[in-house]
Amino acid sequence: MLDEESPIKVAQYYTKLPDKQLLSEKLRKAIAIAREHYQKDKDE
Questions:
Q1: d(CA 24, CA 15)
Q2: Which of 24, 27, 31, 43 is the most exposed place for a label (fewest CB within 10 A)?
Q3: Residue 2's pLDDT band (boundaries 50, 70, 90)?
């Protein structure tokens, strides 16, 4: 068992994908956030 204070981090994997609509909404939000960050960096 890994200690919470350990610098080693373990990834969590899904064995079953979430609902397609939920996945699509999250992807759209992630794209919108990335575009905002890109535009902000571009303007500076």
A1: 18
A2: 43
A3: low
Cα angle: 35, vertex 12, 23; to 5 degrees: 45
For the chain, give the secondary structure using H, E and C.
CCCCCCCCCCCCCCCCCCCHHHHHHHHHHHHHHHHHHHHHHHHC
Distance (Å, whole) CA 44 – CA 37: 11
Contacts of residues 35-43 at CB distance under 8 Å and 24 or more positions apart, as own/partner, are none
Listed by start position, the domains of the chain span: 17-44
